[in-house]
Amino acid sequence: MKPIKVGLLGLGTVGTGVVRIVEGHQEDLQSQVGSPIVIEKVLVQNKSKSRGIHVNPDKLTEDPWDIVNDPEIDVIVEVMGGIENTRTYILEALARGKHIVTANKDLMAVHGPEILTKAHEHGCDVLYEASVAGGIPIIRTLIEGFSSDRITKIMGIVNGTTNFILTKMSKEGAAYDVVLKEAQELGYAEADPTSDVEGLDAARKMTILASLGFRSDVSLEDVDVKGISKVSREDIAYAKRLGYEMKLLGIAERQDDYISVAVQPTMVKNSHPIASVNGVFNAVYVYGEAVGETMFYGAGAGELPTATSVVADLVAVVKNLRLGVNGKQLTLTYKEKKLKTDEQIASKYFLLLHVDDRAGVLARITQAFAEFEVSLESVVQQPNATLPEAEIIIITHDASKAAVNKVLAAFESMDVVKSVKSVYRVEG
Ligand SMILES: NC(=O)C1=CN([C@@H]2O[C@H](COP(=O)(O)OP(=O)(O)OC[C@H]3O[C@@H](n4cnc5c(N)ncnc54)[C@H](OP(=O)(O)O)[C@@H]3O)[C@@H](O)[C@H]2O)C=CC1
Ligand SMILES: N[C@@H](CC=O)C(=O)O
């Protein structure tokens, strides 16, 4: 059979993995799709850079149009990252009838609907399994595995870099900056790791998951995002003492027609399976009305796990080519979203306050919670080790975000409250 020719945009962490798997598993791939898969051309920024993999130098190009305009190329695998240039290359490639596989969540979270519409118009496939949770086949699972159910909640660790950092800080007492550097060296972090640590990467992934899971037009602006850069070793130690692990969680919830999506550092009860998801591993919990609770676990970043998802998409495109059904999949119809208000978003909260250490303070603090009908699960007061103040550690029962914000606003005008050191959502 005629070989399938692939143009690879990018030969960094993921691109290198794609070449290794396509070459190393060639026989298995051929047996599934019935023809050889050949990486015909590879786009890089700098052809003379030394690389950890040998690629025939004649295949390397620094000009994306060498690939986009090449009529011999059937499929483009985009693993270079970035948004605007990449969007242009992909739209142009679709206009020329090429199928696309991408790992680019930044692009798909922002321009996904435009790209998928264009693909449909041109009878092309656009697959993006690797864009969320690296090696876990969660996108295919949401589209196919849950097609018969109605999802009410998607909750997970969807960023490997921040889970790697929080795990090392929690288990080894490691310093934030040192572990971030290690995550970068291992190829887990984004080109600009701010998007990992400030939660944007996870927010993009949650946009994709929530859109597919709730079949709703969720956009990045709908996600309430907070990263881990302000999580201190002290916060992690408090969490552990109380029986929790600190995790950066993405949480998308639906009640009737109303949804909320957030990414935030969250204290997860030790007994919850997500609390023991460590290092670069990701896990996604999906709750369906009929199926109940399910969990998907695996490496969320890194060369080979991510490339596994990319090459699986490539195999799917080639199988569709064989069957002549590219671009013929039924597209999802998205409902117009209705976002929950802060009154409708409920969870347990952890608060750490520094207060004056004198009679009646605890009563005033608890009175503020009572005023806004926030019920408390536990309250602990202890002296501060270094300051002439007391610390109050509070865990609430389920309370609305609006009510907790009102309590926090009340603390601002209470002279006995010196500072609100930390506030975290609590799960489990
Ligand atoms: N790393 C991971 O674990 C995961 C990454 N992803 C996504 O996969 C994509 C790639 O990530 P990753 O492999 O880590 O990125 P890298 O930074 O390691 O590699 C990027 C590659 O693209 C090339 N490149 C970048 N910009 C251009 C440009 N303007 N013109 C030509 N070539 C360019 C680079 O060339 P050169 O080598 O010459 O510099 C490099 O080979 C991103 O979208 C990322 O978000 C998704 C899941 C996991
Ligand atoms: N930087 C990302 C890579 C995979 O998407 C992460 O750490 O999860």
From TrEMBL:
What this protein needs as a cofactor is: a metal cation
Q: Report the source organism.
A: Paenibacillus phyllosphaerae
Instruction: Report the pathway entry.
Output: Amino-acid biosynthesis; L-threonine biosynthesis; L-threonine from L-aspartate: step 3/5; Amino-acid biosynthesis; L-methionine biosynthesis via de novo pathway; L-homoserine from L-aspartate: step 3/3
Record's superkingdom? Bacteria
Q: Which UniProt keyword terms apply here?
A: Amino-acid biosynthesis, Metal-binding, Methionine biosynthesis, NAD, NADP, Oxidoreductase, Sodium, Threonine biosynthesis
Residues annotated as binding L-homoserine: 190
Q: Which family does it belong to?
A: Belongs to the homoserine dehydrogenase family.
Is Metal-binding among this UniProt entry's keywords? Answer: yes
Listed binding positions for NADPH are 105
Protein's UniProt keywords contain NAD: yes
The record's annotation in PROSITE patterns points to:
ACT, HOMOSER_DHGENASE
The protein's matches in InterPro entries, at most eight in alphabetical order, are given as: ACT-like_dom_sf (IPR045865), ACT_dom (IPR002912), Asp/hSer_DH_NAD-bd (IPR005106), HDH (IPR016204), HDH_cat (IPR001342), HDH_CS (IPR019811), NAD(P)-bd_dom_sf (IPR036291)
Q: Which GO terms describe its biological process?
A: methionine biosynthetic process; threonine biosynthetic process
Q: Which PANTHER family match?
A: HOMOSERINE DEHYDROGENASE (PTHR43331:SF1)
Q: Which Pfam families match?
A: ACT, Homoserine_dh, NAD_binding_3
Q: Which residues bind NADP(+)?
A: 9-16
Q: What is this protein called?
A: Homoserine dehydrogenase
